Structures are given as C-alpha cells and as structure tokens.
Amino acid sequence: MLSKSKNNIKFQIDLSADDKVIHFPTLRTVLMIEQVIRNAKDPINKSEIKRRIDVKIMHQTLNLILNYMEERGLVINTKEGYVWTYNPSKKLSKAIKEGREV
C-alpha cells in the first residue's frame, strides 16, 4: 500500500490488488481521458468517454482511471456523469486555506 499526504489530504493506492487488475492504463490513456473530461461542457458518462477517445479501452481500465482521478480530487461523479473539478488557482488555494468553515 502506497500512502502519501499532501496539504493534509491523504491518498492511498492499494498496490497489492495487482492480481485483480487485468490491464493497467498507460499514461497516454490517462491523459486522453483527462482531456475528454476537462473539455466536456456537461457531465459525461463512461460510454461517452469511451466514444470520444481515440483508442479502445477495457471497461475495467476506465474504472481504474476514473477511481484514481476521483481519489486525487480531479473529477467528481454526479448522477449525470463525471465533471472536471480540479483548479490549480493560487488565489483559490489561499482562500480555502485562510477561509473559515461555516
């Protein structure tokens, strides 16, 4: 199990589950899926993601990528589909850090 903490957010990736994963994604595939979700104007479901990328992808591999992105805080899964949420804005980070929780 690989564990990393960044800005008080803890990420865990279970590397012992290798026997259950048939195929690990390449970086190229992860970046293609990231671009599709980022450029989507509306929430996008899994079948639409598969349709928009240039290569065929196994459903299990797509699930692995989407779970990774959710854990990292890049996307959220809504009823309508996946939505890109990551914002590297320094102003936003400062506001969250200095803000008061209500």
SSE blueprint:
Blueprint: E1 2-6, E2 9-13, H1 27-39, H2 46-52, H3 59-72, E3 75-77, E4 82-84, H4 90-98
Antiparallel strand pairs: 1-2, 3-4
The number of helical elements comes to: 4
CATH superfamily: Winged helix-like DNA-binding domain superfamily/Winged helix DNA-binding domain
Uncertain spans: none
What is the terminal-to-terminal distance?
Answer: 35 Å
Q: Output the radius of gyration.
A: 15 Å
- The gross shape turns out to be elongated
The helicity comes to 40-55%
Percentage of residues in strands: 15-25%
What is the overall pLDDT average? 83
What is the highest CATH level, the class? Mainly Alpha
Q: List how many beta strands DSSP finds.
A: 4
Helix and strand sequence: EEHHHEEH
Overall structural domain count: 1
Strand order, largest beta sheet = 1-2
Q: Which architecture per CATH?
A: Orthogonal Bundle
Major sheet: 2 strands, antiparallel
Query: CATH fold name, please?
Result: Arc Repressor Mutant, subunit A
